[in-house]
Structure formats: C-alpha cells, structure tokens
Amino acid sequence: MDEIVFFDRYRQQTCVEKVYGDKSLRWTYGSVGGKIALATVVKRLWFSRFYGWLMDRRSSREKIAPFIERYEIDADEFVRAPDQFENFNAFFYRRLKPQARPIDSDPTTVVFPADGRHLCIPDLSESDGLLVKGERLDLETLVADADLARHYARGSLLVSRLCPVDYHRFHFPVAGCPGPPRHVNGPLYSVNPIALRQNIQILATNRRVLTVLDTETIGRVLLLEIGATCVGGICQTYSAGLNVSKGDEKGYFRFGASSTIVIFEPGRIRFDDDLLVQSQQKRELYAHVGDHMGTIL
C-alpha cells in the first residue's frame, strides 16, 4: 500500500505520515487473515472498549515518554507535564495551553474544529469523491435523517482526520447555540486513508454523534464526531442550549484515531485556497484547531 502523504500548512510542504500501528493496520486491511479479523473482532465495540480499558490502566503510563519521542510531540504545549498523567488515556485527551492554539479572531471566518488532516467538498452535489474519484459519501446514511440529507444535499463539507499523535479535543468552528448530541450506532472501522480508500462509507456508518449548531452568521451547521477502531469513547463537554463562542471546546475522544465532520448549508462558506487546492488533489491539509478554514458568505 502507498505512503500517506499530506500537505502541512505551516511548513508549506508535503509530508509523509508516521502511522501509529502501521504494520497492524496494513495487515488488517491488506490481507485475507486481517480482513477476517476485521469482520469478526476489530470492528466490534467490545474490542475498542477493551483497548480503551488497557489505556486507562496505570501501567500504560510507561507508553507516554516513548510515544512523545517517537512522534516528536511538543510537550511544552501541554497544560500538564508528561509525568503528571495518571495513564495513557489521560495523556491522549490532554489539554493544551491557550496560546498553543489561538483562535482566529476575525468575525468573518470559520475555524478548524480539531487538529488534524483536513479535506473539503465545496458542493456535495458536485463532488467526485474525497479520497477516491467517484466514491461519494452517502449523506442520508451519515446524518441518519432523510430531511436533513435533502436540506444539505448541495451543502459544503469538511472532514478532519485526527491521528493518535494529535491533540484529541474538538471545538466549535463558529459561534452559536448547540442542540443536544444525537448518538447513531454503527461499527468501529479505522478512519485511516488505508481503510477509507477501500470503503469511504466507513465515515457514514461508523458509530457517531451529531449535533445541530444554530448560528446568526452562517445558518444551521451540522457537527459530527466519528468513532473508529480503538476509540474508547466520544465525550461531550459542552452544555446543550447554551451559547458558545467560536473555538470553545465541544468534547474529546478517548484513545484511538478518529474524525470530525462539519456540514454547512448551501452557499454559506468559501473554503480557504490552500484547503481547496489540496482537496482537489485528494490530498489532506494539516492545520490546527482554531486556525481559519474559510470565510462566511
């Protein structure tokens, strides 16, 4: 299988992703034995909960220092020092210092909801696929609501893929009033491109949470958090019905790679040029939460 290449907004260059658990991932999605294991064990909720339980054990603290070194994570950004985390999961959903992720203050912009590798679709009705040409997301399956799917059929969409090495808290991309989270059951496949290139519908069928955000500036926005293999949980920290500011925390993922999706009503946003260019090449753009991703129309 090919290397996973993304474009780094800050370095202004393409980079090859260091994939956590690369050998296991490629075996699971690239061999007969792996696909059998995937169908019978790996995609099951109990498997991910068991792995999450292991990451909650005190002994998992031993993984933190080697992980930071292996993936060159900047510990100076952490609110807590590496040796203060009680287990690996606590390190995984760590908080960062506010200055590490400043929120773009321009009232006309929308910001990325998470650290990660991002792809956009300006018009869902004209999309030729995210990672594979012609492979479109099934919007009705994704939102599990036929009326919502019709309303957003020509809308704009952003997918943000978080790797295990990333900051794993997700935030509101724009100010507004969020409704209650709606949980949609499903399996837990990997959201790594190695898996998505085989089946993009993983994003639409995995366990997920959907929240409707009512805004004064950009209409009604759909926010989704997508579960994945070894994600121990999708945890919401916001309060439904209370207004939030752009960049406020919405929640966090426990251990594992995961994704968020933001869907805008038609004609409401113009994505940034670098995000558009990379997405047209089916290459993800790496950017931080709070950084601008588009302009409100």
Write a compact overview of the structure shown:
This protein is α+β, with helices and mostly antiparallel strands.
Q: What is the chains' assembly state? A: single chain
Estimate the global geometry from the Cα principal axes.
Answer: globular
DSSP summary: helix tally? 10
Whole-angstrom Rg: 18 Å
Level of helix content? 10-25%
Proportion in β-strands: 15-25%
What's the main sheet like?
Answer: 10 strands, mixed
**Which residues sit in consecutive blocks of at least 5 with pLDDT less than 50?**
34-39
Termini, distance in Å? 40 Å
Average pLDDT rating: 86
Number of strands: 16
Q: What string, H for helix and E for strand, traces the elements in order?
A: EEHHHHHEEHHEEEEHHEEEEEEHEE
- Counting structural domains, the number is 1
Classify the secondary structure makeup into a structural class: alpha+beta
Pathway: Phospholipid metabolism; phosphatidylethanolamine biosynthesis; Lipid metabolism
Keywords: Decarboxylase, Lipid biosynthesis, Lipid metabolism, Lyase, Phospholipid biosynthesis, Phospholipid metabolism, Pyruvate, Zymogen
GO molecular function: phosphatidylserine decarboxylase activity
Pfam family, one: PS_Dcarbxylase
Tell me what the structure shows.
This protein has 297 residues and is an alpha+beta fold. It has one domain. The protein is built from 10 helices and 16 strands. The protein has helices at 22-30, 32-42, 45-56, 64-70, 88-92, 139-143, 146-151, 193-196, 202-205, 273-280; strands at 5-8, 13-16, 109-111, 116-121, 156-162, 169-171, 177-178, 182-184, 208-214, 220-226, 234-236, 249-253, 258-264, 269-271, 284-287, 292-296. Strands 1, 2, 4, 5, 7, 8, 9, 10, 13 and 15 form a 10-stranded mixed sheet that branches. A 3-stranded antiparallel sheet has the order 3-16-14. A 3-stranded antiparallel sheet has the order 6-12-11, with no helix packed on it. The longest helix is centred in the N-terminal third of the chain and has 12 residues, at 45-56. The radius of gyration is 18 Å and the shape is globular. The termini are far apart. Residues 34-39 have low confidence and may be disordered. GO terms for molecular function: phosphatidylserine decarboxylase activity. It is an enzyme of class 4 (lyase).
